[in-house]
Protein 1
Amino acid sequence: MTEQRDQQPSLEPMPTDWRRALAVVAHPDDLEYGCAAAVADWTDGGREVVYLLATRGEAGIDSVAPDACASLREAEQRASAAVVGVSAVEFLDHRDGVVEYGLGLRRDIAAAIRRHRPELVITLNHRDTWGGDQGGGYWNTPDHKAVGRATLDAAADAGNRWIFPELISEQGLEPWDGVRWVAVAGTSTPTHAADAGPGLERSVLSLLEHKAYIAALTDQDPEEYVRTFLTGNAERVAPRFGGRPAVAFEVFPR
Ligand SMILES: [Zn+2]
């Protein structure tokens, strides 16, 4: 195992010549588990990051019915975004757990890309598994796969005026062909990384804002659980990034 890991190629630093990013994920907490340390560092540097969530995560807590859960998780998501300098959090209101890949989802994401005009788009693992590049691994959820794939597609849809022409005629959303990279967090085949050190502490506080969700998830002390998880993830990337704890991304240039 160690030998295999040592042979993995080094990760390139994430691009830095951009001003605006749009992060598109399925659920509240996806960005906090995936890449909030990088987001904290980016917003500290004066960059603008907007969060777009396909659902409100209303099917995420077994003991809370969806109607009550949606507002609870929305509030937790807004609080966790604020901790890492993100004030704009939008929801597409697709149904949690049964998000369908398709034209509707692509159109909704393309519309958001046209509204916010990001150079960098972030999403979460669109592949079938977590960590399954050597075989095995954990099966990914249908929502993550659908939203990740639709986001990769929508980066191009946003730039073509003849795809979803109703975005122009009904919403006045002119094409935005300025997305230069789509960076996917949580894949087993990363190409790039961002230093997690400067933002790690705030990423812990950010994930901790998902209080009700974490309380339902584990009996462990919340801070211990969150710190162990996020620190472990960042340290696993370090051997491929000059020994520095980091957040890994698979970058698709455009
Ligand atoms: Zn999720």
Protein 2
Amino acid sequence: MIQFKTIKEALKYKDKCPLCSYNLEMSHLYGDMDYDNNRLHIFNYSNIIIIDILNDSIKVIPNEDMSTPFMGLHVTRLMMSCHSCKNYECYLLLKINLQDFCWEEISFNSETIIVGSDRIKNIFSINETQYHKNIYGTMTGLPLIPFDFSNPQNTIDKIKLLIPYI
Ligand SMILES: [Zn+2]
């Protein structure tokens, strides 16, 4: 699994959609994250974690209502996706040490492509390819098959050779 030393390095690793070259954007910021002015804010039960992307600093603001702020490891995933072709997304895994205000791990966890009505997700932490016939249909797990971004249909054809019944 590809690991990074800084969040800046991680965000640069895949900053463009490998299918259409459009800039990837942070997505899925749900209610527990927001991004503004090169700062990523992560809200957890007892802290606000502020990550400055440019100088890779981690600041933690404890919630004053909590008598014992959480000081362990905060684990979250940051999703990057293509808003142009909408056929690519990837996740960075972030493990933040709240005791020492440093990174425990930043890694490239998974990436997903959509080809026609099929969805394929490669999860590097478990070396698995997950194939979904019909975007949200049942999943078939396979050993990791690298994506052919120049011709995504080649990846589907390879999967279909491995599981001829789908
Ligand atoms: Zn794209």
